[in-house]
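Write out the 3D structure for:
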Amino acid sequence: MELAVGASEATLKSLLSKLGSLLSEEYALIRGVRGDIQFINDELASMQAFLSNLSKSDESGHDDQTEDWMKQVRDVAYDIEDCIDDFAHSLRPDPRGTGWVTAAKKALYEIRTWRPRRAIAAQVVELKSRAQQVGERRVRYGVRDPEPGKGNGGLAGLTEHHAAEHQHVARQLVRVKPPVGKDVPDLESWMSFDEKRKKPGVLSIVGFGGVGKTTIAMALYKKFGPEFQCRAMVTVSQNSDLEVVLMSLVSQVRPPPNNGERQGKDSSMDKKIPVTRSILSRRLRLPCGKDGEDGSAVLQKHGQIQAELKKYLEQNRYLLLIDDVWSSSSWLYIKKCIPENDKGSRIIITTRIQAVATTCSSRKDQDRVHPVDVLNEKEAKELFQNTLNECKHAVNKQLSHNQVPHRVWEMCGGLPLAIVTMAGLVASKLHMVQKDWIKVCDSLFLESQVCRKPEEFMRIINHCYNDLDSDLKTCSLYLSIFPKGRKISRKRLTRRWIAEGFVSEKQGLSVEDVAETCFNQLIQRKIIRPIEHNNNGRVKSCQVHDMVLEYLISKAAEEDFITVIGSHWSMPMHSNKVRRLSVHNSDSNRAKHVHSMNLSHVRSLTVLESLDKLHFKSFKTAIVQVLDLEGCRGFRESHVKVSDICEMILLKYLSLRRTDIKNLPQNIHKLKYLETLDIRETEVQELPATTGQLERIKNILGGDKRTRKTLKLPKELKGTMKTLCILSGIEIADGSTTAASDLSYFTGLRKLAIYKIHKSEEIFKDLLSSIQYLSGYSLQTLVIDDESSEFLKTLDTMSSYPIDLTALELSGRFLKLPKWMDKLNDLVKLTLSATVLRTDTLQLLSRLGSLFSLTFSISEKQDPSFAAILQKNKSDSGGDIFVPAGGFSKLRLLRIIIPFLPSLNFAKNATPQLERIELHFKRLEGLHGMDKLGTNRYDVLLTIDGQASGLTKLIVDSLKKPTSDQYSLIVNEHHT
């Protein structure tokens, strides 16, 4: 198997950056060491150039000598990086200045640091020798130079124009689409409620890997999910901890706190069980022997989970999707915990094994087995062309089908995953013609052969991977950090890439823009697939198909790029040195595995479940650069101390999101390299004063939008004014916190999200002034949640307008739009309080030519007097609310979340590009004109409160019988 050149090249790229920084600083070095470091820098630069040529070579693979030499380069680079990081940790730049005081300080400093400087000098001499030997060894053993190639069209040679092209992809929404060639209508009939099948029915979708089982299951889940009172999805797989799987079900079906948003909304297979798991672990932990918990403890835990599932599911009509079941015993274990009822509940199972499908769907009158086979030639061509058209549309490219021979999709043997992957490759290779594609096909399969088995798909994904440039190879390997079936946040992923040094500024684009470009290219190449979009049409989260992920994990393990504990696949370690550690499951057996490793070289640590078995003392904390504990619980019960984190002085990315942390330590200022601090949905309510000493901080993410928790900022935060780009979830108040006027210092802010504003005329005046000032610099996204609603009334008094905003959210009792609202020509996403839902409002907003999504939202808890306001809006609008014609030229998503929705009327062609309407209400007076909005077919999702009046339900029932094929209607009855 070919070595992953990209990871080795990325390691050198990161290291060369550090060496350059080291040489530019004034350190008191032992004589000759600076020259040795310069030699190492030059030697490694030559090695990187060699590896870069390898990645661009037209050769299909590398011989054993080349692969072995690349491993040596990687190993010495890793060790040099450790030495450099130790250097930065042990020594500070020399005291600067002139005069006898500075001279005395320098002398004392050199005496005090003599020992570490000697140790570092010895290491540098040894590493110089190793680097020199590696370079000479390539020549001595005849590692040949790579053949010159045309390159692979990746980022390495991107011009600014092409990079920007991939960065600004077309905005779109993830829509429910029926799988090509699959008998979905028949399955849809089975999913619907039937008086003759009130007991929970089990649908088993069976077929081998990559044939489209999960695609069918997801299409059914998304389309019919709103019809069920609660729903959940989990992935099982071969090595899953079934207790964790069941607790994930519990976390998804339990009602949200404070009767928040509808349970199950946007659930995912990876939904974590932060509260449930920690409660069960503490409540049920019993003494156990060497092999773990005894039988009674296991049975007791199982009984507790069963009781919780029964509590939440028994009285509801539920929908469960259990993906990738590998054994009958796993299903039987899960089945015991799922209660029976007569509500017409449904369970969807996917499996590769026919015997498992038969066991799961054993009742002929209730259950069903649905086998999935490969596509026929017509269906394969349709899927290929549809996927190709999507890729072209996403980046506004033109591609003639005549450039692509039939053999490209014919060789895929009707396997949907192979077809989609090849379509992604074709869409990225516009310069290739038919004869080029014939050569590609010949290199993968003989003329008479096609891809028939999942193992043969690995040839295709291997070719697509090798075609990536080095940056994209590294970024794709990084995906193996996340478990199978995991929903991966785009922002989380790109910020981690930046912290790891995988991407850098290029061709006039910022590092954030380049990271975005890499993400978009992986989407286009079908290495990752979008599963959720933001309201602004940008990808919010993605997934990796399990067969693609298995390939990436094997590549990452091969180069010791990432070490995974608790994965669905068992991958051997090729070295005892762990560089990036991802702990998927931390039970006692796997914890022992972690403690047996050499963790002194770990620079990236990801824990996805629990901190119970983790000891920070096992790590060399001074070199850790990425610490991601998102969703972990157990800070108070575990050996982990928050203060230990502040010993990770090279840390760039710190995520404590959704953990049970309450306070950040005062010594957080020691993290002088920190760029991202994510403490959203935690109990942290105030940042320490020392946060202002974080010299490189770019992103501070706090608060909880749903529960209106906020983050107070210290006055000293002005120290970060040069670097801060995102400030989210904050509270504006007087006293010891950052004042409204201080915000004007943060001229680099791209996003400002304020969740609470204290009522004060002086605060309002200063905040208005700061917003106007920041709008003249970089501000693109502004979010203001004003509970008192007094500040929102002052927006109309602004002397200059934030005309460059692309996203604006205003929450509170908002009765009148600012007069400058129709001047926001670049606005893509707009969210407003539903108190301004009137005909004149819609007429004004219809003139916004770039508007992609529009949301009106309010709840009774937000504003108890909403009913009177909405009644006045209705009368001011002449009794009905009208959506005018001739506007909203780019609107794709319209959402109205409101208890009382007056009669809503759409003019003909009112929203010509609309793709989705979402209406959430208790009372509806009417909905008209739905069949004449435009030429595109669109989705209509109506979420109605279960306590709605009979008249409202009658109106909704009438909408279920459309006279037109213009839209598809989904009705969900939500019980609070």
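The longest strand covers residues 938-945.
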